[in-house]
Amino acid sequence: MLPRIADSLSFLYLDIVRIHQDDTGVCAEVTSERRGTEKVYVPTAALGCVLLGPGTSITARALATFARHGTTVLITGAGGVRCYAAALPDSLTTTWLERQTRAWADDTRRLAVATAMYEKRFGEATVPPGTTLAQLRGFEGQHVKAHYRVLAQQYKIGRFRRAYDPASWDTQDPVNLALSAANTCLYGIVHAAILALGCSAALGFVHNGNQQAFVYDIADLYKADLTIPLAFSLHASTNPEAEARRSFRDGLRLFKLLPRIVGDIQELLGLGSAYDIPDPEEQLVDLWDPISGPVPGGMNHGTDT
Questions:
Q1: What is the mean pLDDT of the chain?
Q2: pTM of the full structure
Q3: Which is nearest to 176 in space by CA: 190, 160, 159, 156?
Q4: Residue 80 above 80 pLDDT?
Q5: CA gap 255, 156 in Å, rounded
Q6: Which whole number is the average pLDDT over 100-113?
Q7: HSE (CB half, 13 Å, CA atoms) of 79?
Q8: Does the CA dihedral 156-158-159-165 come out positive or negative?
Q9: Which residues, 6+ apart, have CB-to-CB distance to 265 below 8 Å?
Q10: How confident is the model at residue 2 (pLDDT cuts 50, 70, 90)?
Q11: Cβ atoms within 10 A of the Cβ of 281, count?
C-alpha cells in the first residue's frame, strides 16, 4: 500500500485476487496449490482509492462496503497502465471538481492554469506576463524539440522526429514506439489520480474536446522526466513497447507518481488559495448561493426570505 497523501488519500493496487466480504470485513483472498488459501483484510476505512488490476474479482457486498467508506474503486490494466472504469462514492468531495470547472469556464483563469502548467514543466517565471495560449504552445514546442535533440545526440541516433500514426504502427522507429507505449502507461495512472480526486478527465486547460483532455494536460508535466528519456534509452530494443511497459510496472514508477500527481493537481487548481478539507463523516449536502457561497443543506430556510 502506498503512503497516505494529500487530503488523506491513500491508494491500494490489487490484482490476481478475489475480494469479498465476510463477518469480519473486506478481505483479499488468494488460493494456490503450494500455499493453500491466504487471506488479507483490507483497511477500507483508511483507503481513498482502490485500483483493481487484471485477474481481480469483487463481490457486490465488498463493493458496497467500499462505497460506504467513501473509497473510489477503479478498474485498471496491469500496474494501472490503463483506467477502464470507476465507481465513485456519493460521499466523495466535489471541492476539486468545482475548482476545476470554475477555472475551466473562465477564460482568464483557464489561461492562468495553463501558464502554471508550462512553468511547472520549464521553470518558474519562464513565461512573460501577457503571454497568450498560442505563444505558450510555441514555447512548449521549442522546448520539447530541444529536448529531443539533446537525447538524440546523447544516444547517437541522428535526427529524431516524433510520429504517432496508428495506421502505420509497424513502420515506426523504436523510440517512437517506446514513447507511445510509455505515454499510455502514464495516462492510466494520471487518469486514476484525477478520478480519485473527483475531478473531470474531460475538462482540460491546454487540451480540449476529448474525454481525456485533462489527463493529457497533467501527463505532459512528467514526460520530459519519465517517458521521453526512457523511450530514447530503448532506441536499440527489438521490443520497445513491451520493455517500456515493463519498466514502469516492475519499478512501480507509476504508483510512486501518485502522490506527486495528486499534489500537482491540487496546486494547479488551487493556485495558492486556501481551501477547507472536507469532513469524510459529513453526510449533508450544501446548497449553492452566488453571494454567500455554500450554505448548509438539510434545514428549512423558509424564515430567511
A1: 84
A2: 0.79
A3: 160
A4: no
A5: 32
A6: 94
A7: 20
A8: negative
A9: 96, 193, 194, 197, 199, 218
A10: very low
A11: 7
Q: What is the mean pLDDT of residues 225-238?
A: 92
Q: Which of 215, 212, 196, 185 is nearest to 78 (CA)?
A: 185
Amino acid at 122: F
Let me know if 242 is exposed, middle or buried by CB neighbors in 10 A (0-12, 13-18, 19+): middle
**Euclidean distance between CA atoms 198 and 70, whole angstroms:** 11
- Cell (9 digits) for 265: 493537481
Is 66:50 a contact under the CB 8 Å cutoff? yes
Can you tell me the distance from the alpha carbon of 128 to that of 108, in angstroms, rounded to the nearest whole number?
Answer: 15
Q: How many CB atoms lie within 10 A of CB 292?
A: 8
The strand pairing partners of 237, in sequence order, are: none
pLDDT-above-90 percentage for the chain? 44
User: Going by DSSP bridges, is the β-strand pair 17-21/26-32 parallel, antiparallel, or unpaired?
Assistant: antiparallel
Distance separating alpha carbons of residues 256 and 225, to the nearest angstrom: 14
Question: Rounded CA gap, 36 and 284, in Å?
Answer: 45
Least confident of 36-40, 113-117, 157-161: 157-161
Return contacts of 152-161, CB within 8 angstroms, 24+ apart: 152/232, 154/232, 155/232, 155/233, 155/235, 157/232, 157/235, 160/232
For residues 137, 265, 197 and 81, what is the CA-based torsion angle, rounded to 10 degrees? Answer: 60
Q: How far is CA 130 from CA 49, 102, 108, 135, in A?
A: 39, 21, 11, 10
